[in-house]
Amino acid sequence: MRRALLMGRFQPFHLGHLQVVRDILEEFPQLIVAVGSATFNYLEKSPFTAGERIWMIHEALAESGLDMSRIYITAYPNIENNAAWAAHLKSLLPPFHVAFTGNALPHILLKEAGIEVRPLEMINRELYCASEIRRRMLEGEDWESLVPPAVARIIKEIKGVERLKFIVRGESDPLHW
């Protein structure tokens, strides 16, 4: 059975990601959604923990009516040795046949490891962009319409907007304590 891999930081998971998942599942019987940079959190670009992101993704996919028996959701940490990264990733995940990524470095590293890599075909990338969503959270603008309802509920439950505002004040940076 052919299995695809979708990698991303998902900070947060948004409607563009949801559409990519739907598109991949039209072609592949199974999908691994792998949350990258799993050890980074409480940072401006990475405000949510890996566990929170897995939770958001699971709830969003289940809520959207997708067959969850076809989907694995997991997380992987970064490692400093880029030359060993693809082998490290493969050791952490179920076997996969093709990887989808929007990031140039994983694309190169996986391709050099002999893995088929395809670019993400995102809808309206300027709007459905985690950086834009985080900016809107900070500015008090509408962000909820850009994420699945389950993601908005979880972000509210964990007080994610308040966390992000706290983070940008610099108080969560241990280098400034």
Automatic annotation (TrEMBL):
Gene3D superfamilies: HUPs. Coiled coil: none annotated. It is an enzyme of class 2 (transferase). GO terms for cellular component: cytoplasm. Pathway: Cofactor biosynthesis; NAD(+) biosynthesis; NAD(+) from nicotinamide D-ribonucleotide: step 1/1. Its EC number is 2.7.7.1. GO terms for molecular function: ATP binding; nicotinamide-nucleotide adenylyltransferase activity. Keywords: ATP-binding, Cytoplasm, NAD, Nucleotide-binding, Nucleotidyltransferase, Pyridine nucleotide biosynthesis, Transferase. Its main location: cytoplasm. It holds the Pfam family CTP_transf_like. PANTHER family: BIFUNCTIONAL NMN ADENYLYLTRANSFERASE_NUDIX HYDROLASE, PHOSPHOPANTETHEINE ADENYLYLTRANSFERASE. NCBIfam families: arch_NMN_Atrans, cyt_tran_rel, PRK01153.1. Belongs to the archaeal NMN adenylyltransferase family. This is Nicotinamide-nucleotide adenylyltransferase. It comes from Thermosulfidibacter takaii.
